[in-house]
Every structure is written in structure tokens, then in C-alpha cells.
């Protein structure tokens, strides 16, 4: 493997590659994210943004209390988010735990959702605290069950203690398993990475190792997908594109609960990575409650009055 | 002491237990009966209403679950707090409406008494209107009044404080949560009453108070799908019909009141009937 010619797989070359990265101006990133959050998106642009955001949602349920019935209901909703309005697009994918992948795939196919992917959270999600053979087995299990996207977590302990090569090798191994069968999303859990410099470092590490997507968080840790963190990651994929001519996707997850937040994310994407990234194949939003708010805002734009949560499904 | 700079109060909205400015950034002028400028309260927008409804909806299950005893205590607490700040309310009423001190004193006293009166109803209303219905089978069949959900209200222009209390108390005492638009010309007592609410153990979001124009806010209240009932006592007669038609589209209960009585509480309650087997 040549890793885009950026590293040769040795510890030394990886350390050199990461050391060469420019640092992140924390105050500047916060200020720019705050400035972009003030953009006002109205009328036709807002309507476009709502539909685009719906098509980018990774409709997620990652609870210990998940049942087959709940996953099936979620899949039905993923294909046809508003049963009364066929002009609402399907979401990007459903995101479930490994043991629910087969259920989700089967039910999606049953309700006409062949175009909706199933993302599985693997490698001992959410903590990532398991041995490598277990992580590989975990991922293989999800792939065999029909997952088209693998959301893996990195070993934050190894990353924070400077064992970058361990993190790198894990991603390489999981990527090799996924091959052409599944997209690989790498979750950093930015709430545990402490600094923006670390987020940038983790982004470049994951991209060189073969990630198709970089994802902020598991949704189990607060803070999750804050605007400056997403900005830093979008800058990373933009810079990586100029280095390698390959576009890597970004997936913020956790804490994006309403339409306003989702539209702010789209503004960030457009102004940072560029309009090429405004597609579900390069930008996803991991969420559960968000979809209902998007639907209610859409109803408001169509009907001219405020909608009620009583008219959308309870998740 | 004479060269002290005036400390003027900024009149803001009361949403979800906090005092935000209107998202629109707009204000309007309130003048005294003699035409002297008094204050610049917020001119609330439909988006402030939307935020207030979200807060009220979130607060409703918790408030509804509070015991009748607890709800009564909290309403009584409102009366206690209002009593303690009597002088401020008397001053504000005189400043805005130009009435005599005696009249203002009377309005504040009546407001306090009214709160105590409605507080007393909290644990009695279901005995008054509930029923044990005769059925042809081995069952108890009860009908119990329950809260309706989120209610919006337009408070009357005058009297600004007593009218507001008469609007707020009967709606919340049964477990509803409320978004109320205060008197447009005399919103000062309403916003000071918000300070009373904020210090009275009323959970955040149970009472939300907006200030602004009736013609702007009322149609949005009527058409809002997540508001279950609407008190239009404060609306002028000419726009009643339009509001009633708009509210009927989403099956909203709409009432206008002329007096205060337990019927005002029951207006925003729904009857639930329960069957309970007696056994053999």
C-alpha cells in the first residue's frame, strides 16, 4: 500500500507526516464558525437546504433498548420520512448496532429502500476498548450481515498517548476488510481529543490510512459535533483534496437537533470545503431527532402555519 | 445622591423561565395616559411565539403531573410574591394608565385575591365537574377533567394586571401550560409579573409572556398546530371571526370570557372517561 504516497506505513514516516501539518488557530476557528452561523437562509434556499439535509441524514438508533420493531419502524421512516408527502427524499442511510444490520437491510429492501444504505457501528463502539481480533471480527460480522457503511471508532487512548501508528494500523486493517464492499467512516470522538490541533491531526491520519469519511463523534460524549470542530475537519478534507485530488466525506454526529443547526452545517460545508461536498456521498449528518424537526419545518413552509410534533412519528 | 445616573429597566419577553429580547430585535413605545414616553418593550414576532410554544410543550407533562396540592401551593406562592411587591405594581399602573392611587391599589389587591381564589380551585375542580356514571355492567365508570395541553391567550387591554391574572391563573391551575400576549398599551405590569413568576417555583416554560401587537400574533396563535386552545378575551370584536375560522381548521378550542368563575378553568380541560372493573 502506498497511502497516497504520504506515508510508507512506518512509524517514522507517519510521525513526520503529522508533524508537518500546520496548527489550528483556535480563536480564529471559533470566530469563523460563529460568523458563518449568522448567515440567514430563507425561502427557496431554505427549502432546498431542508431537502438536502434530509437526504444527508444518517437516521440513527444506538440504544441498548433497541428492538427489531424499532429498527423496522426506523427503516420505514428512512425510506419515506413523511408518509403523506412523496416529494420528501429518503435519508442517506440508517445507522444501527451490528446485530441489527441484517434486520435493517431486510426491512429496507422490503419497503422499497434498496437505495438507502445501512451503516453499522463497529470496532467495539462507542469506546473502542477491545483487542484487534475482536474489532476485526466485529467488523466482519457487520459486513457479512449486509452493512454498506462501517462507522469505526479510533482508539482515543492510543491517539492521546502518541501511539499514532497503532491508530493508523487499525484503520488500515479495517479498511482492508471493507475493501470495495463498504464505505469506511472513521469516528474520532472529538469531545475526547481535547484540542483542534488533535482533530486536524486525527483527520489527516485517518484520511491517509484510507478513510472514506471522517466523523466527529459517537453521540455518547458531550461536546459532540460543535461548529468549530466541523470547520476544522472540513478544512482538513479540503486541504487533503488539494494534496491528493481525492474527496473525503465528513459526518458530524451528535447534538444536531433542529433545522437551524442542520442549515448552519450546510453553510459551513459550502463555505469551507466547497459546493462539491453538498451531496450525501460526501456529507452526512448523524442524527435521530433532527429528521422530525426538518419535516416540521418543511410542513411549515408548505402550509404557512406552524406544525405540531403530534403529526410526525415518535422515534 | 442627586447626581446618580438613572437605572432604567429593560422590558424583555419571558420565555422558558428566562428573559430574552425578541429575536426580531424590534421594540415599540409605551406612553402614559398623558402622552409621556415610559418604556420600549419588545415587539414580539411569530418566531418568539414559536419558541414559547416549544418551551410550553416541553414543560406541559411535568406541570400536568404535579399534584393538585402542589399546583395550588405554587399559585398561592405567586400571590405571596405579588403581595410583597405591591408598591411597584401600584406605581406602574398609575404611571401607565393615570388612574388614582386608590383605584390602582384596588386592582393590585383584587389581582392578589384572584390568585388565591384560583389556587384554591386546584384540588377541587375535579370533584366539581368529575362524575361517577351509571353503567349497565360490573364497572365503575368515572369521568375526570384533565388538562388540555398548551394554551395560548390574548390578555385584555384593561385592567392590565387583573386582566392578565384572570387569563393566566385559570389556564395553568388545571395543568395546562401557557403562552400569553400581554396588554399592548400597558405591558409593564405583565413584564413585572414575569419577575414574580420567576421567583415563585413556577417551573420554566409553564407561563410564557410576550408583548407586542395582537393583530400580528393572534393569527399565528390560531393557526399553530401545536396549540390546543386559545383564549381570545383580549381581542377586539372585529377580528374574532377570522381567528375562529383559522383555529377551527386545526380543531382548536377557542373561548372568550366575560367573567371569572370555575367555568374558565373547565373551558380548557377535557373530560376523560375511565372504566374500572368492580369484580364479582
TrEMBL record, chain A:
Q: Name one GO cellular component term.
A: cytoplasm
Q: In which pathway does it act?
A: Carbohydrate degradation; 2-deoxy-D-ribose 1-phosphate degradation; D-glyceraldehyde 3-phosphate and acetaldehyde from 2-deoxy-alpha-D-ribose 1-phosphate: step 2/2
Enzyme class, UniProt record, top EC level: lyase
> What is the E.C. number?
4.1.2.4
Establish whether keyword Glycosyltransferase is in the entry.
no
GO biological process assignments: carbohydrate catabolic process; deoxyribonucleotide catabolic process
Show the SUPFAM superfamilies listed in the entry.
Aldolase (SSF51569)
Write the record's keywords in alphabetical order, separated by commas: Lyase, Schiff base
Looking at the UniProt entry, the stretches that span the membrane are none
Do you know which Gene3D superfamilies this protein is assigned to? Aldolase class I (3.20.20.70)
What Pfam family is a match, any one? Answer: DeoC
Reactions accelerated catalytically: 2-deoxy-D-ribose 5-phosphate = D-glyceraldehyde 3-phosphate + acetaldehyde
Q: Which GO terms describe its molecular function?
A: deoxyribose-phosphate aldolase activity
The text of the family note is: Belongs to the DeoC/FbaB aldolase family. DeoC type 2 subfamily.
Question: What is the name of this protein?
Answer: deoxyribose-phosphate aldolase
Automatic annotation (TrEMBL), chain B:
Checking Pfam families in the record gives:
Aldedh (PF00171)
| Domain Aldehyde dehydrogenase stretches | 30-254
Q: Tell me, what is one Gene Ontology molecular-function annotation carried by this entry?
A: oxidoreductase activity
In terms of Gene3D superfamilies, this protein maps to:
Aldehyde Dehydrogenase, Chain A, domain 1
- UniProt cross-references to SUPFAM superfamilies, sorted A to Z: ALDH-like
Q: What is this protein called?
A: Unannotated protein
Q: Which organism is it from?
A: freshwater metagenome
Amino acid at each position: 500500500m502506498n497511502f497516497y504516497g504520504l506515508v510508507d506505513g512506518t512509524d517514522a514516516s507517519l510521525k513526520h507526516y503529522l508533524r508537518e501539518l500546520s496548527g489550528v488557530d483556535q480563536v480564529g476557528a471559533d470566530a469563523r464558525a460563529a460568523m458563518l452561523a449568522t448567515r440567514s437562509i430563507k425561502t427557496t434556499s431554505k427549502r432546498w437546504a431542508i431537502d438536502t439535509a434530509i437526504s444527508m441524514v444518517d437516521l440513527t438508533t444506538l440504544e441498548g433498548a433497541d428492538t427489531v420493531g424499532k429498527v423496522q419502524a426506523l427503516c420505514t421512516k428512512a425510506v419515506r420520512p413523511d408518509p403523506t408527502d412523496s416529494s420528501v427524499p429518503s435519508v442517506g442511510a440508517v445507522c444501527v448496532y451490528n446485530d441489527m444490520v441484517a434486520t435493517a437491510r431486510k426491512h429496507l429492501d422490503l419497503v422499497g429502500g434498496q437505495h438507502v444504505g445501512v451503516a453499522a457501528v463497529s470496532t467495539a463502539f462507542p469506546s473502542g476498548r477491545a483487542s484487534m481480533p475482536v474489532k476485526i471480527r466485529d467488523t466482519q460480522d457487520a459486513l457479512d450481515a449486509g452493512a454498506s457503511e462501517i462507522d469505526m471508532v479510533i482508539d482515543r487512548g492510543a491517539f492521546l498517548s502518541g501511539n499514532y501508528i497503532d491508530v493508523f494500523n487499525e484503520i488500515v486493517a479495517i479498511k482492508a476488510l471493507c475493501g470495495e464492499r463498504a464505505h469506511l467512516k472513521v469516528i474520532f470522538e472529538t469531545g475526547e481529543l481535547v484540542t483542534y490541533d488533535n482533530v486536524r491531526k486525527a483527520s489527516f491520519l485517518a484520511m491517509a490510512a484510507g478513510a472514506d469519511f471522517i466523523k466527529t463523534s459517537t453521540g455518547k460524549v458531550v461536546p459532540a459535533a460543535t461548529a468549530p470542530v466541523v470547520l476544522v475537519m472540513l478544512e482538513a478534507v479540503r486541504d487533503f483534496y488539494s494534496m491528493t485530488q481525492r474527496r473525503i466525506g465528513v459526518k458530524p454526529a451528535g447534538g444536531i437537533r433542529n433545522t437551524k443547526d442542520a442549515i448552519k452545517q450546510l453553510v459551513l460545508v459550502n463555505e469551507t470545503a466547497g459546493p462539491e461536498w453538498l451531496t450525501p456521498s460526501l456529507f452526512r449528518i448523524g442524527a435521530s431527532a433532527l429528521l422530525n424537526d426538518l419535516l416540521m419545518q418543511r410542513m411549515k413552509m408548505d402550509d404557512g402555519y406552524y406544525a405540531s410534533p403530534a403529526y410526525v412519528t415518535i422515534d | 445622591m442627586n447626581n446618580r445616573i438613572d437605572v432604567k429597566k429593560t422590558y424583555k419577553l419571558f420565555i422558558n423561565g428566562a428573559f430574552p429580547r425578541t429575536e426580531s430585535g424590534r421594540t415599540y413605545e409605551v406612553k402614559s395616559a398623558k402622552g409621556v414616553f415610559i418604556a420600549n418593550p419588545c415587539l414580539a414576532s411569530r418566531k418568539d411565539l414559536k419558541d414559547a410554544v416549544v418551551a410550553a410543550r416541553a414543560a406541559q407533562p411535568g406541570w400536568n403531573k404535579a399534584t393538585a396540592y402542589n399546583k395550588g401551593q405554587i399559585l398561592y406562592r405567586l400571590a405571596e410574591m405579588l403581595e410583597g411587591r405591591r408598591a411597584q405594581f401600584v406605581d406602574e399602573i398609575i404611571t401607565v394608565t393615570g388612574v388614582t392611587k386608590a383605584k390602582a391599589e384596588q386592582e393590585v389587591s383584587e389581582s392578589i385575591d384572584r390568585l388565591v381564589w384560583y389556587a384554591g380551585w386546584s384540588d377541587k375542580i375535579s370533584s366539581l365537574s368529575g362524575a361517577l356514571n351509571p353503567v349497565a355492567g360490573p364497572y365503575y365508570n368515572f369521568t375526570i377533567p384533565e388538562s388540555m395541553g398548551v394554551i395560548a391567550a390574548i390578555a385584555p387591554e384593561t385592567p392590565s394586571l387583573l386582566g392578565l391574572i384572570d387569563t393566566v391563573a385559570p389556564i395553568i391551575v388545571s395543568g395546562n401550560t401557557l403562552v400569553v400576549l400581554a396588554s399592548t398599551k400597558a405591558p409593564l405590569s405583565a413584564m413585572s409579573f414575569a419577575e414574580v413568576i420567576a421567583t415563585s417555583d413556577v417551573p420554566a416554560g409553564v407561563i410564557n409572556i410576550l408583548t407586542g401587537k395582537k393583530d400580528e400574533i393572534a393569527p399565528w396563535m390560531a393557526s399553530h398546530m401545536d396549540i390546543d386552545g386559545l383564549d381570545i378575551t383580549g381581542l377586539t370584536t372585529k377580528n374574532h371571526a377570522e381567528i375562529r375560522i383559522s383555529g377551527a381548521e386545526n380543531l382548536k378550542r377557542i373561548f372568550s370570557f366575560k367573567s371569572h368563575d370555575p367555568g374558565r378553568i373547565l373551558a380548557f380541560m377535557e373530560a376523560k372517561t375511565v372504566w374500572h372493573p368492580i369484580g364479582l
